[in-house]
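Let us work through a complete example step by step.
Step 1: write down the sequence.
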Amino acid sequence: MGTTDRSGQDQKPRGGRLPRNERRVQLLESALGAFVAQGYHAAAMDDIAERAGVSKPVLYQHFPGKLDLYLALLDVSCDQIIDNCRAALASTHDNKTRVAAAMAAFYSYVAAENGAFRLVFESDLTSEPAVREHVDRVTSECAAMIADVIHDDTGLPGEASRLLAVSLVGMAQVSARFWISEAAGISQPQAVELVSGLAWRGIRGYPLTDEH
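Step 2: predict the structure and record it as tokens.
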């Protein structure tokens, strides 16, 4: 069993060799807790090593610096929400259901107990170009997938489809963050139904016509 440090946080027991991949996952999990709780600037490599129950040299063997560790976490977090969005769009051919599924993917991601969404949508390091690039990837890749669906369904030009898709992604992530912090009286399914209903009423206003 782990011990408890002076701040009351659980520590992983020290010692024992793990395969490199397993150790990396363990370190990323510990780093996620530190970055979500403290933000990038306040979190220290000492704290992360202590959370993981390893020495700081072991941590540096896997990640040369704090920014490298943060970017590795962003990779995992960004891939997760992009994969969730892709799965939602592929889950049905009914576009009304697709809108709801895509919206639900963002809400489920924001509602996850590990708080990983804060690294992607509320990072305190967006002035760092590499971080900004990672964060922007979520919007660009999710919007590209949604734009393809909009184009196929409405016949709108590519640029117009992409603008609508970016608007949907923005609606999803901003409303989900508002819901998790300030609308606790609304259940997750209710929130998804409300916001996806609003989105669908707008998107269905662009029907495919013979002119396209």
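Step 3: interpret the result. Confidence is low (pLDDT under 50) at residues 1-15.
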